[in-house]
Design a protein that fits this description.
Layout (H helix, E strand, L loop, with lengths): L2 H32 L13 H13 L3 H13 L4 H13 L18 H8 L11 E8 L8 E8 L3 H9 L6 H6 E4 L12 H17 L4 E3 L2
Parallel strand pairs: 2-4
Antiparallel strand pairs: 1-2, 1-3
Length: 220
């Protein structure tokens, strides 16, 4: 093979390598965006049109994580309840169930944006083994909003602690009777913290959520 032939091959190889590297970088960037906490709102800069297109693609690909971030972003922007409910139904019916993150609620909650805003004010010093958790409560039999929230702390994973409540194990009456699901998203940043910090945050967070107009149980 002559030198002229070699000169035509090497530039092509370099271009292919750069192209592959560019795709890899874009792929890593996309993964980083989707791995963001919901409170970080990775799709906050997307237009409504772009958000709808991204959600349609997520449904087609049964991509629960991307779809969840789309629904969450519209929720945080104040989308109508029917729009959020329709999005939730479409995502679950798309076959994306295994990839839908646990932080996406199963139903519309009017005060969820407020819960994110309030919980975002809190932070803990240091690391530990205690988790702050929220449980959505059913108050449809009462006047006012259909939903309230229980604030608690535990060294168990929040989902496991919720199951214990529902099984009557060291159960809070409000969760045993009214608990619907764990609200993971607003307090994802308050997992694995020192017990003393958790005790402080549990009390203060409950008070702050109540000040925001949310019906609160627990927090002590």
């Amino acid at each position: 093979m002559g030198q002229g032939r070699l000169r035509t091959i090497y530039p092509m190889t370099a271009r292919a390598t750069r192209k592959h590297t560019g795709k890899a970088k874009r792929g890593r960037k996309a993964q980083a965006v989707l791995a963001a906490l919901p409170s970080q709102r990775p799709f906050r800069l997307k237009s409504e049109e772009d958000l709808r297109a991204t959600f349609a693609q997520a449904l087609a690909q049964a991509d629960g994580l991307t779809g969840a971030h789309c629904i969450h972003e519209r929720w945080m922007r104040g989308a109508f309840p029917a729009q959020v409910e329709a999005g939730l139904a479409a995502l679950w019916n798309s076959g994306a169930g295994p990839s839908i993150p646990e932080w996406l609620p199963m139903r519309y909650i009017s005060w969820l944006p407020d819960a994110y805003e309030v919980a975002g004010r809190f932070s803990a010093k240091g690391r530990g083994r205690t988790n702050i958790y929220l449980v959505l409560l059913d108050f449809s039999d009462r006047r006012g909003d259909d939903h309230g929230v229980y604030v608690g702390m535990t060294h168990y994973p929040p989902a496991q602690r919720f199951d214990q409540h529902k099984a009557g194990i060291r159960a809070a009456g409000s969760v045993l009777k009214r608990g619907l699901e764990v609200l993971t998203g607003p307090v994802l940043h308050l997992q694995g913290i020192p017990r003393t910090e958790a005790a402080r945050i549990e009390t203060e967070l409950a008070a702050a959520l109540e000040d925001a107009g949310i019906r609160v149980e627990g927090g002590h």
